[in-house]
Write a structure and sequence with these properties.
Jelly Rolls; mainly beta; 8-stranded antiparallel beta sheet; single chain; elongated
Length: 516
């Protein structure tokens, strides 16, 4: 074990260790007035391989997926009436690929407008395409266009779904489904893939919605009329269908003050693939008007293409973990850190052998973190856990049967990735915060986590701090059972399905043995 040393300046001053209390002989809760013996903290700066235990954390895909991008200017006319359009075969893949016009940078303080037509002639399941305004600086693996306003297409073999979204530079989002969407219940694909032409408009007014901004979208087609309502559907599905295309053709979304404040910058207008491994869609766009400019593609416009005519093998397939000790220093400090590419499943970890620790003693950890990539429906855990269970016992409750306390990184698509205190035990259930600090992609933060078993009248309390923000959770009686034991500290994946994160940690200090 290394002796504790001060963290680098970027992390600020190391918090002095507080004394932790001794248990009363009768097992009663500790009082604040009693002296506490110091916790045993271990320091890891990762200037060399720490030799932590690795389980399932490096998975090589048995079969790599070949990516074939083939889109840009095309002399065809599927989407428009005259010869010439843009588009082609667009494959969802980790690496960004685009074909777009360069714009003078625009922000949410500027008025934006666009219109045009599109047609889809073929697609595979799990294909994804974005079209609209976006930022040219895109990170692979995010699954969506960071800093964007436009149409998100999601494909199955028989058709496509469509959503309209605005995503900030910090990866928060707002928007609406244009086609019906009830997760897990009703997800039809009404956008046709037979070459049907669709006409659309998109307008953004920064002064609307009380100055927060509003974007409005319309969608129509000459040969896609609204069919009679399907009365065989459940009532909720019928209601959702009638509120979406083709029964409804005009949609509007008001920005929240938080979204407007975070902001977004757009310097491209055009097509971008979904940045997660997946299938291919053949889609074309024509008759475009955007910010007062008209483009009918009667000739090659000379737009900028990046990765749009290329073939290669993609190794970042779902479930192919690649994390552990690294010689990089993205999170700060000198070379050496832990982290990497993590999917929600299968179960895997990279952790130090500690313990035997329990919820009867104080637990502390601190260090630095950077979320390099955070795709929707992704996340991971950092903290103390029990290594005995090495499989997911229940797909609906992945933490069932486990003991864990620390921080959870993840959250809803509209937010991005929370940094929240979290505790789950085999007998005491689970407790966490509903909201708290949010990790901005690409930004390094100092962080802390403290569990105090004596706080909250002896019921226990967790507190997580990220940068200058923090969140505290009071535990209820029975949520810190005495029999919960932890023998590892580190990173682990937990969940089913989902996408990827690339997250890195450095200069860690953590409780590694019980207080004496």
């Amino acid at each position: 074990m290394k002796s504790p040393r001060p963290a680098p300046p970027a992390l600020g001053r190391v918090i002095r260790l507080c004394a932790s209390g001794a248990l009363l002989a009768a097992g009663l809760a500790l009082t604040a007035a009693e002296p506490r013996p110091a916790s045993s903290l271990k320091t890891e700066s990762f200037d060399h391989d720490p030799g932590w235990e690795a389980f399932n954390n490096h998975i090589v895909s048995k079969k790599g997926a070949v990516v074939k991008q083939d889109f840009g200017y095309s002399p065809t006319h599927f989407a428009g009436k005259g010869r010439g359009e843009m588009g082609g075969k667009v494959q969802r893949a980790t690496a960004p690929a685009c074909y777009a016009d360069k714009l003078a940078p625009k922000t949410l303080d500027d008025k934006l407008s666009a219109s045009g037509s599109f047609a889809i002639t073929a697609c595979m399941s799990n294909a994804g395409v974005f079209f609209g305004f976006f930022n040219s600086h895109q990170t692979g693996g995010t699954g969506r266009a960071i800093g964007s306003l436009g149409m998100d297409f999601d494909f199955e073999k028989k058709g496509a779904r469509l959503a309209l979204r605005m995503i900030t530079d910090g990866n928060k989002s707002c928007g609406t489904f244009i086609t019906p969407y009830l997760p897990g219940k009703y997800r039809p694909t009404p956008i046709k893939i037979d070459g049907t032409r669709y006409h659309w408009t998109l307008d953004y007014d920064p002064k609307a919605a009380g100055g927060n901004g509003r974007f409005t979208f319309t969608l129509g087609s000459d040969n896609h009329p609204a069919p009679p309502p399907d009365t065989s559907l459940p009532e909720a599905s019928q209601k959702e269908a009638l509120a979406r295309f083709p029964y409804t053709t005009t949609f509007s979304v008001d920005l929240t003050p938080e979204i407007r404040k975070e902001g977004a910058t757009f310097d491209r207008f055009g097509l971008l693939n979904g940045t997660k491994a997946g299938g291919t869609a053949t889609i074309f766009f024509d008759e475009l008007q955007y910010n007062g400019k008209t483009q009918d593609f009667s000739q090659d416009p000379g737009w900028t293409g990046e990765g749009n005519r290329i073939s290669y093998e993609n190794g970042e397939l779902a479930g192919a973990h690649d994390f552990g000790y690294l010689r990089s220093h993205l999170a700060g400090g000198s070379p050496g850190e832990v982290g990497g590419l993590m999917w929600r499943s299968p179960y895997a970890y990279y952790a130090d052998r500690v313990g035997s620790l329990s919820l009867r003693g104080r637990l502390e950890a601190r260090g630095s973190i950077i979320l390099a990539v955070g795709a929707p429906d992704s996340g991971m855990m950092l903290g103390w856990f029990n290594s005995e269970v090495k499989e997911v016992l229940d797909d609906k409750e992945p933490l069932k049967g486990r003991n864990f306390i620390g921080v959870s990184i993840g959250g809803p698509t509209r937010i991005g990735h929370y940094f929240l205190p979290f505790c789950a035990t085999a007998t005491g259930g689970r407790v966490t915060a509903k909201k708290g600090p949010v990790l901005k992609q690409g930004k390094a933060y100092p962080w802390t986590f403290v569990f105090d078993p004596a706080a909250n009248e002896g019921r226990g309390q967790m507190r997580a701090t990220l940068g200058e923000e923090s969140v505290t959770v009071d535990m209820r009686r029975g949520q810190k059972p005495d029999e919960a034991v932890f023998d590892r500290f580190g990173l682990f994946t937990i969940g089913t399905g989902g996408a990827q994160v690339k997250v890195y940690f450095d200069d860690l200090q953590y409780t590694a043995s019980p207080a004496q």
